[in-house]
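Appendix C reproduces, verbatim, an entry submitted by the partner laboratory led by Prof. M.T., so that reviewers can inspect both the input and the predicted structure.
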Amino acid sequence: MKQERLISPSLLSADFGHLADDIAEINNSRAQYLHIDIMDGVFVPNISFGFPVLKYVAQLSTKPLDVHLMIVEPDKFVNEVKALGSEIMNVHYEACTHLHRSFQRIHDAGMKAGVTLNPHTPVELLEDIVSEADLVLLMSVNPGFGGQKFIENTYRKVERLRNMIDRQNAHALIEVDGGVTAANAAKLYDCGADMLVAGSSVFNQPDRHAAINAILDAK
C-alpha cells in the first residue's frame, strides 16, 4: 500500500513579525503538521522560541504541533511541551543519556515520542529502541540554522532506517528535516520517508500553498 505523504512546515523560517499571518496560511493549507524547533544555544549554536511565544503559536495553530527539542536535558520540559497541546515531542538521541526513559515520560504525558539523529549519527544505534518510537527524524543538515544545503547521504540513511523499521514490524514514521525542496522531495518519499520538514522552501516563497503542494505532489 502506498504511504501517505506528510509535510510539516517549519515555523523557524516564518516571518517572526507576522507569525499570526504565517500560521493562518499553514492552517489553510494541505500541511498535516506545524513543526516547531526549540533551541537553547547550548546543544545547537542558536536560540529560537521560548514557551511564552509557543503558547501563542499553539492557540493560533489548527494543525497538530510537531515539537523538535534541540536542547540539553529535554526531559525537564515534558510538561511544558504537553501544555502546548503538542501531538509529538521529539528529542535528540545525542542529548538523551537514557532515551528509553525519555520515551516513557513522553508517552506517560500522552504525547507521541520522537527521536532525532544528527547527520553523523548512524541509524543502527536505534536498533534496540526503534520499536518504542512513534517517529524518527533524520537531520539532513547540521541542526541550528535554516537554509542549509541538503546532505546527500540522507537518502541512504532513510533507506537503512526504513529497512530496520519494516524488519521489526515497528510503526515509527520517518521524518526528514533540512534542505528539503520540491526537487528532492520525491526521492525522499520514494526512499521511505513519511514526513518532510520544509522551512525556507515554504516560507520564503510568495505562495506558501503552492510551495507545500509542490513538495507533496513532487514526482
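Residues 105 and 200 are 32 Å apart (CA to CA). Additional entries are available on request from the coordinating office.
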